[in-house]
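User: For a benchmark we're assembling, each entry needs the component sequences followed by a predicted structure for the full assembly. Here are entry 17's components. Please fill in the structure.
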Amino acid sequence: MDTRFYGAGLAKLEVKELSGPLIVIEGADGVGRSTHMELLQGWLEGHGLAVLSTGLVRSALTRRGIMSAKEGHSFDRNTMALFYATDLADRIEHEIIPGMRSGFVVLADRYVFTTMARGAARGLNRDWLAKLYGFALVPTKVFFLRLDPEELIRRTLRRGGELDYWESGRDVGLAPDLYSSFRAYQTLILQEFDRMAEAYGFVTIDASRSVEEVQADLRRGVADFLDPGLLNPPPPDAGD
Amino acid sequence: MAPLYEPHEYPGRLIVVEGIDGSGKSTQLSLLETFLVSEGYDASFTEWNSSPLVKDTTRRGKKKNLFSPTTFSLIHATDFADRHERSILPPLRTGFLVLADRWAYTAFARDVARGNDRAWLRNLYEFATRPDLALYFRVDIDTAVARITGGRIALKYHEAGMDLGLSPDLITSFRLFQTQVLAEYDQIAAEFGLTVIDGARSIVEQQREVRKLVKPLLKGLRRASGLRPRPAGA
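Assistant: Structure for entry 17:
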């Protein structure tokens, strides 16, 4: 078996040498993932590295289908897990592997773990979910931006946002009102992430701190396995 | 144990048909449905790859050739999961006869022929209810090809395995791909206890056998009194 995958890997796809790393950033909505993705990308590019970023539900195949499913009234948990798996498989085949093969640093804004957490929070069997993702590449490193649900709500509201229907797990029927549902659901999600952090060896980063502090941790973590020299200022001729 | 491996406890009955294109399974299921409804049973029909939730994605993927063996398999599982939740479990739990044109076994046969892992596929469909009766209409490849070239069935790109690049010719590709599918079906029939029906015999003979097999399952099901009209579209 190809140990670069969690299970049997991808059918009929010969995966030769993957020279670039796959770096995953996990964490709830509102934790600052996209800010940190952008900062990380700019930093790496400043050092002259080619970066490719990809994120959940961005596949050309499934993006529209998943969006419209989320607008509907019924999106059953098995269907959801499988639809997201289709999205991820498509991106692994068409973005992540080609990118890594060409030597890009691939940054993934969430990966199998988000969908595994969502499935588990909906009562799906964890073993079933893990086997389902047997086609997924094992990332080089997973960084988990960890934040308590209470702080998550504060940040979301501070930005003038509302608590999202799906991020509140309204379909799960945990509580009769949006606020309680969000808290209960995100607490379940956090428990799943803490469990996976241990099982899959995530680097857990306390996201309650300032953007600068969190970003510094991320950079140290990336430099640690990619190239310790990245922590020095970039050479003046690189990155233009 | 997962639903796929143990008898369900719902008041309804689940009857599924399996077989390659040209095996005659859809004709037989349609005849069975007409018969059951005319006998006053509540029957509900569902077919492979028909969930409205996934339809647009599948259509897009096929049109633009975006599928790989893995995503092709996953989108069909997504389609199945949606139908299982929406149009299979509710009638089954209400006490209906649910008639399904293709079940998880189709994926086990076709997707393995496409190169996917057997154990991975069985895990994928583990949530599927185990049918009370699974009829496998077995035909040899020549019979299927003869029926298709006879013009009664339109041959589709993926059904012919054209995505695998086995042959540029539709019929040749169908022959090569479906020969592998047939070999896989034989293994599945043994593994999951499918009832094999000789699909080469006449429609009438096959239907007689189908009804004989279905009859014991009807015991205890509620029946409406009086005859009812044929269902729309049957």
